[in-house]
Amino acid sequence: MIARGHTVRATTRTEAGRAPIEAGGAECWIGMPDPGHAGRLKATALTRFGQVLDFSPQYDAIYLQWMLALYALDGDRSLYALAAANARDAQTRAANGEGLYLLSWNGEALPAGYAAPGMLQTQTATTSVFAWLAVYPPPP
After folding, report:
1. Percent of the chain at pLDDT exceeding 90
2. What pTM was estimated for this model as a whole?
3. Nearest one of 72, 75, 78 to 45, comparing CA atoms
4. What value does the mean pLDDT take over residues 119-140?
5. What are the pLDDT digits (tens) for 49-93?
6. What secondary structure does DSSP assign to the chain, as a single string?
7. What share of the chain in percent tops pLDDT 70?
8. What are the residue ranges spanned by the domains of the chain?
9. What is the predicted pLDDT for the residue at 124?
10. 61: number of Cβ within 10 Å
11. How far is it, in rounded angstroms, from Cα 45 to Cα 63?
12. Cβ contacts of residue 76 below 8 Å, gap of 6+?
């Protein structure tokens, strides 16, 4: 991105992280995230999107990826449960007759405005949720 003229910014929590960031050509910001902001964002997102995600796998997967990242930071078990429940829905409902996850997570064909039939990004988005669940350990 830097080679194409884009500005890249990276965050580290300590001064020790500055040198590697700047060596890569990125701008460095040192600081701690505001935990209150994350809580407000989480509440807004959960209110807006709810528990059953059925917009489109390529968007819902990104949302769940970030909810799992937040789970890793704040330990909110409900975020892991959100991702796991939607992954179960996808696993049981989104596979087409050929074993590919090309349907929505509720088992219906995706509206043409969301994804063209048979798009690889639908399959990869769904399988990425399974991968992200493998990255983050379930709550005890």
Report:
1. 68
2. 0.75
3. 78
4. 94
5. 999 998 899 999 999 999 999 999 889 999 999 999 999 999 999
6. -TTTT---EEEESSGGGHHHHHHTT-EEEE----HHHHHHHHHHHHHHH-SS--S-HHHHHHHHHHHHHHHHHH--HHHHHHHHHHHHHHHHHSB-TTS-B-S-TTSSPPPTTT--TT-HHHHHHHHHHHHHHHHSPPP-
7. 99
8. 1-32, 35-135
9. 94
10. 26
11. 9
12. 42, 70
Contact of 130 with 91, CB cutoff 8 Å: yes
Spatial distance between the Cα atoms of 68 and 136, rounded to a whole number of angstroms: 7
Q: What is the CA radius of gyration of the chain?
A: 18
Quickly tell me which residue has 């996808």 as its tokens.
90
What pLDDT, on the 0 to 100 scale, is given for residue 7? 85
The terminus-to-terminus CA distance of the chain in angstroms comes to 40
